[in-house]
Amino acid sequence: MSKVKIPKHTEQVLPQVENLLKSWTLISLLICSFFLTQISMENIDKTWVSNSVYLYLSWFIKGILILVLGTFNTILIMGLGILGHEGTHWTLFKNRFLNDFWGGILWALSLLPYYDFRDFHFTHHRCTHYQGVDPEEPMNNHPLWFALTLGPLMGLMNRYKIVLSHLVSQSAKERGEAWKDVGFLTLAIVFYFYLIPLLGISIWFTVIPTFVILPTVFALRNIGEHHSIPEQGQQTLTQGTQKVDSWMVMTHPLIDWLWSHINYHQVHHRYPHLSHKYLPEIFEATKAEQSYLVINGYWQIILHALTSDYYGSQEDIEPYFLSK
Fold first, then answer.
1. N-term to C-term CA, the chain
2. Domain residue spans in the chain?
3. From the CB of residue 319, how many other CB atoms can be counted at a distance below 10 Å?
4. Quick check: helix, strand or coil at residue 262?
């Protein structure tokens, strides 16, 4: 094992200011993108719709703009959700109240319940890629087309059903957390469906298309976590003494920053108590001694997933072990 000292949860220095500034930067960029979409739609209408010859062309250009900017918005929203994921592991802020309050808001901006996700996610960490036990399996263990379209919606509906059941739970803790989740989600709904229109922005060009696109873009990124890796109980150790359950997706530094190094997923699963800022340096310090599956870019992992199942074979992953 590596001689590198892995800090304990209480020993690490959390990037609290960076986390706060990044979250506000992403929210600001999201609002600016909504404004840009609205202004673009209005300008196209003024310039083109008055001329019937160009009417259909204007619809086509509008559609392309909405698709491109909507996809950009989903990338920003996932960045907010991944910062919320930091809150789930208590690595967003040192203060627990501030960590859970701001983490809950960030998660809700992805329309996901924060406290329910923590229970779900910690179970996922304990049972990663064990068939029949890992709670992520029901939305991922399908043909790729299903996992990219209906899988995320299935997972979201399951989360909402659990929150609703917890609202009337006999457990005061479950009831309290469920009502907090409802509060966070209400704030997100007010932001998207009241404050954004109050700024003169049409939700039909901005918010609605963004959330139509979001599940598929989320699923495309999610493939880069565990897809194609053999079920843990079936995995053989041919490359070292450690099993692997997650990918390391090497991507552009801007994506590393936007998505808070979540692409260093194997490091995160081995050291889930660590802030995202430690993940790249831990990888560099341990890659000569620990087993890692490394692939270059999300498009490469998507192409790889086209020819393998969610629970892949040892042959599927063998070429991607980092040489020691």
1. 13
2. 16-320
3. 9
4. coil
Q: Contact, 158 vs 143, CB < 8 A?
A: no
For the stretch 94-134, pLDDT in tens is 999 999 999 999 999 999 999 999 999 999 999 999 999 99
What is the token pair recorded at 306?
Answer: 């086209």
How confident is the model over 232-248, as pLDDT tens digits?
A: 766 655 545 578 999 99
Orientation of helix 55-88 relative to helix 114-126, angle to 10°: 70
Cα radius of gyration (the chain): 21
251-259: long-range pairs with CB below 8 Å, 24+:
251/296, 251/297, 251/298, 256/280, 257/22, 258/26, 258/75, 258/76, 258/79, 259/78, 259/79, 259/82, 259/221
Angle between helices 96-108 and 172-190 (to 10 degrees): 50
Q: Map tokens 């500034």 to a residue.
A: 21
How many helices (H) and strands (E) would you count in the chain? Answer: 14, 2
Helix, strand, coil percentages, rounded to 5, for the chain: 65, 5, 30
Closest CA to 319 of 302, 304, 299, 303: 304
Q: What angle do CA 112, 76, 146 make, to 5 degrees?
A: 60
